């Protein structure tokens, strides 16, 4: 087997291998694109779900804020009810000459009593014209004393908890406070019921929110998996592309070698078939010889003295042939009678 036959066989094998690998490379690229497309679809679905999830979460937060405000209103009424009930208990204890279980008045009751005493003393000074100057001064000092104590207690008692009572009518004040406590309790219950109804509308939103969050997480995991698979296929593509390029380089090198061999062969053939008149080196050598006066020969013919050469440049051989022909023609003609 010749070298050209071996090269041709090797070239054919490489081309078959390259064709097979390029087909596999196209399939891998298609698979990679499929993974990328699937990942994009999962990412788009995930983004849409997350957008809905955020919108739903904002709605839930708003409703929770509203529900919390309702609960706070209920707690405010509850606190006022508890304060009133505490005052009722302390007033009952006062009626029984008792200061309560701990033997100490609550700030709310003490503030109410002080305010009641201040109002009573101020009313007395306004309507009682028989009060002596000495007694009036004592009353003013007592009012000042109560006012100072009132300033000490006010920071401890919220404005909404300050309830006015009549110390001259303890039983009546107790009944009024009980009615007010019942009213606060009813308001508290009403707000709690409203909050409970609001909560019933929020509960389904929590379930929907949890579902959307789980669905968003699932789609995100699917997106990551598609990206992972696409990356794995891409690694195969890169590795195979490197092999394909190596084969292409080999084929290119073999083509270059074959072309170089053909060019060398053609050049040698051209040199072998080149005639003397097309040989620049030979023409130069002949020119030098002619200038030097040396005789030269081309194609086996001699130059120089030639017996058949004529000054007019025509061949003497042809001239002799014409003369011979003329002589034969003259000999062949019949002689005339005169001759």
Q: What does this protein look like?
A:
The protein has 339 residues and is mostly helical. The chain has a domain at 46-215. The protein has six helices and no strands. Helix 1 (3-95) runs antiparallel to helix 4 and helix 2 (107-127) runs antiparallel to helix 3. It is rod-shaped.
Strand content: under 5%
pLDDT below 50 for ≥5 consecutive residues: which ranges?
98-102, 300-316, 323-332, 334-339
Mean pLDDT: 75
Given helix and strand content, the structural type is: mainly alpha
- Distance separating the two termini: 87 Å
Helix share, percent: over 70%
Instruction: Specify the overall morphology.
Output: rod-shaped
Give the key terms.
mainly alpha
Q: How is the topology of this model organized?
A:
Layout: H1 3-95, H2 107-127, H3 133-153, H4 170-273, H5 280-291, H6 316-332
Helix pairs in contact: 1-4, 2-3
């Amino acid at each position: 087997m010749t070298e050209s036959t071996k090269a041709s066989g090797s070239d054919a094998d490489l081309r078959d291998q390259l064709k097979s690998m390029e087909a596999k490379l196209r399939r891998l690229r298609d698979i990679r694109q499929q993974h990328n497309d699937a990942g994009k679809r999962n990412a788009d679905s995930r983004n849409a779900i997350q957008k809905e999830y955020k919108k739903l979460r904002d709605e839930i937060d708003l409703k929770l804020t509203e529900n919390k405000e309702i609960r706070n209103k209920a707690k405010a009424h509850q606190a006022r009810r508890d304060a009133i009930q505490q005052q009722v208990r302390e007033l009952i204890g006062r009626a029984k000459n008792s200061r309560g279980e701990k033997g100490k008045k609550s700030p709310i009751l003490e503030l109410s009593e002080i305010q009641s005493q201040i109002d009573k003393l101020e009313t007395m000074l306004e309507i009682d014209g028989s009060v002596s100057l000495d007694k009036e001064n004592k009353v003013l000092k007592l009012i000042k004393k109560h006012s100072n104590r009132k300033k000490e207690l006010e920071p401890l008692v919220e404005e909404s908890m300050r309830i006015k009572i009549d110390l001259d009518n303890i039983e009546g004040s107790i009944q009024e406070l009980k009615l007010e406590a019942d009213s606060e309790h009813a308001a508290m219950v009403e707000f709690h019921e409203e909050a409970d109804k609001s909560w019933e509308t929020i509960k389904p939103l929590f379930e929907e929110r949890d579902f959307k969050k789980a669905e968003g997480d699932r789609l995100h995991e699917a997106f990551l998996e598609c990206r992972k698979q696409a990356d794995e296929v891409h690694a195969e593509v890169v590795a195979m592309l490197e092999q394909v390029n190596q084969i292409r380089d080999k084929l290119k090198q073999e083509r270059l070698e074959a072309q170089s061999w053909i060019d060398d062969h053609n050049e040698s053939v051209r040199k072998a078939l080149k005639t003397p008149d097309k040989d620049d080196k030979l023409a130069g050598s002949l020119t030098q010889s002619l200038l030097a006066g040396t005789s030269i020969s081309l194609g086996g013919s001699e130059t120089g003295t030639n017996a058949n050469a004529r000054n007019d440049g025509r061949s003497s051989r042809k001239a002799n042939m014409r003369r011979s022909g003329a002589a034969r023609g003259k000999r062949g003609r019949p002689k005339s009678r005169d001759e």
